[in-house]
From TrEMBL:
Stated name of the protein: Uncharacterized protein
Gene3D superfamilies: Ribonuclease Inhibitor
Source organism phylogeny: Eukaryota, Viridiplantae, Streptophyta, Embryophyta, Tracheophyta
Length: 70
């Protein structure tokens, strides 16, 4: 796993349907870009464990989860 990854840019991945369930293992992640990932219908529960991560895109899904887009 890429545990030292700081930025994960998945923006414009229109065919991406889901994110890995173990995103919380990316302990050094600072930014997650999900803009225009229109096929993702739900977020993994563990995404709420990513403290201090700036997440962009998927505003409606983030609001229904425990996070709010920043």
């Amino acid at each position: 796993m890429l545990k030292y990854l700081k930025c994960l840019g998945l923006d414009d991945c229109k065919l991406l349907e889901k994110l890995p369930e173990d995103l919380d293992r990316l302990q050094h992640l600072e930014r997650l870009d999900l803009g225009e990932c229109t096929s993702i219908s739900r977020l993994p529960h563990d995404i709420c464990l990513l403290k201090g991560v700036r997440i962009s895109g998927l505003r409606d899904l983030l609001q229904s989860c425990c996070l709010h887009p920043r």
